[in-house]
Amino acid sequence: MDAAAAGNKEREAVQLLAEAEKRVKASQSFLRGFFGGNTRLEEACEMYTRAANMFKIAKNWSAAGNAFCQAAKLHMQLQSKHDSATCFVDAGNAYKKADPQEAINCLNAAIDIYTDMGRFTIAAKHHITIAEIYESELVDIEKAIAHYEQAADYYKGEESNSSANKCLLKVAGYAAQLEQYQKATEIFEQIGTSTMDNPLLKHSAKDYFFKAALCHFIVDELNAKLALEKYEEMFPAFTDSRECKLLKKLLEAHEEQNCEAYTEAVKEFDSISRLDQWLTTMLLRIKKSIQGDSDGDLK
Question: Per UniProt, which keywords does this protein have (predicted)?
Fold first, then answer.
């Protein structure tokens, strides 16, 4: 859209806001309260929403978010909870492009309404959106973790276990990065145990046990050995996996304080299954505990 057309949409939106405000004022006058106060509020809601959509077309995200917020508050006054929550979500999505903190405030307002209505699955979805804003925009990993945990709780309550596990895996990944290894290990073990008997998911179980073992390994080599034995006993298919074989080689190299053997084992594994950033970070942390490792590299 060219600048002139965008400017026209903005002007139309500003006029609509002025009209909406007049309707709100009219609904508040004493006599109007008896005669059609609600009708005026409903008209104002519609105008705020139309203005918000015009601001969106003009890419004025803050103004769009603000107009959706006004509509949301009026819907609440009119006892239209569902419409109010929808407008708060629309406001949040608009603010995401301009003001991440304001987006979070609007999404939290929507979550309050949804939980009040018993709509926990949709509340969980918005907690995930907030977590993602904390991850990418505001870079506050502790807060992202808290929202993923809340989403997981709501999903569990609604028996949506696979959605809950997706959130918990995010929590475990971040917890390990923040050196909260016990928390990470517990989640990886729990999800590994719950997926190993499911024919559709058991191929993923080896990844979870692998990650749990790495978290143990960073803290204590003996713990890692014991954990590995436990996982093999619980889940015999793990023994034949490349992940289990790699762990055994790494434990051996660590015991012998042999940096070259450690690096070689990682290199060989990586040549067949590419290591992602998280695994690389964890493997480097373990490698640094081998004496004589000064280069701090894996390959």
Answer: ER-Golgi transport, Membrane, Protein transport, Transport
Tell me the per-residue pLDDT of 253-297, one tens digit each, with 9 for 90 and over: 888 888 888 898 999 888 888 888 999 999 999 988 886 544 555
Which tens digits make up the pLDDT trace of 127-155? 999 999 999 888 899 999 999 999 999 99
The answer to whether 179 and 159 are in contact (CB under 8 A) is no
Q: Which position has the token pair 């965008």?
A: 6
CA atoms within 13 A on the CB side of 227: 28
CA proximity to 43, closest of 69, 67, 19, 73: 19
